[in-house]
Amino acid sequence: MTERDTPWPPGTPCWVDLMTTDLEAAKQFYAPLFGWHLTEGVPEAGGYVLAEIGGRPVAGLGAIQEGLEHPPVWTTYLATDDAAATAEQITAAGGQVVMPAMDVMGLGVMAVAQDPTGGTFGIWQSKQHHGIGLANDAGSLTWNELMTRDYAAAKDFYGAVFGYTYTEIGGEGFDYSTIELGGNTVGGLGVLAAQVPAQVPPHWRVYFAVDDADATVAAVTGSGGSVPRPAQDMPFGRHADVADPQGAMFSIIKPASPG
């Protein structure tokens, strides 16, 4: 379990949120699945909802703005001390700023960007809201990874903008690295498998920890979701890729016991 009440170090995945076509349905799906308490959204934020566990924020849920043609998606936000400056670095490194830095009601400053390989992510400069207050516990975020088709270009981009270094842990034709910041592992970067359809873009994948992967998968399907990759054992735990009823993809994992 990781608890935090201060800003996350720059470059660290510090927040995740869902943008969906049916916010009410999403609330009904995720709250019982992960044991989230959902705050009432404020009109000024378009009804954006904070999900909490034990009074600590763990994720956000919001509605896709009317008129925008965009599939439901989970977004990973990377921490920054200066959103405007980071946006400039993103552009200089070959990325694209999709949504310029903007103040969010005094809570922080956000922007949305796309790396040169096509992976979309957010950046967050905290003010009143520091991001995730609880991680690595059941129902909360436990891992973020970029899956891309241009491994070398992605490594170069994130290294230039956020100072990432990498440790190769892949093998047998599968390229994968852990991402390090200041000696701490903060995420992963891998290559999309050849069998992944071309229409699936590079993306930051979000993992939530659970106490029982198989029971969670059953709960997903029982609530109208789908399971693109059934639960299976891997060195780091029992993992599955799932999707909510509106089609937003995410992963769940029962972490392996230490040792």
Average pLDDT score: 92
Largest sheet: 8 strands, mixed
* CATH fold annotation of the domain at 134-255: 2,3-Dihydroxybiphenyl 1,2-Dioxygenase, domain 1
First and last CA, distance: 17 Å
Q: Which features characterize this protein?
A:
alpha+beta; 2,3-Dihydroxybiphenyl 1,2-Dioxygenase, domain 1; 259 residues
Strand and helix map with partners:
Blueprint: E1 2-3, E2 13-20, H1 23-34, E3 37-38, E4 49-53, E5 56-63, E6 73-79, H2 83-92, E7 96-103, E8 108-114, E9 120-126, E10 134-135, E11 141-148, H3 151-162, E12 165-168, E13 176-181, E14 184-191, E15 203-209, H4 213-222, E16 226-234, E17 237-243, E18 249-255
Structure description:
It is built from four helices and 18 strands. The chain is α+β, with helices and mostly antiparallel strands and 259 residues long. The strands form three sheets. It has an eight-stranded mixed sheet with strand order 3-4-5-2-6-9-8-7, with helices on one face. An eight-stranded mixed sheet has the order 12-13-14-11-15-18-17-16. A two-stranded antiparallel ribbon has the order 1-10. The protein is globular, with a radius of gyration of 17 Å. The mean pLDDT is 92.
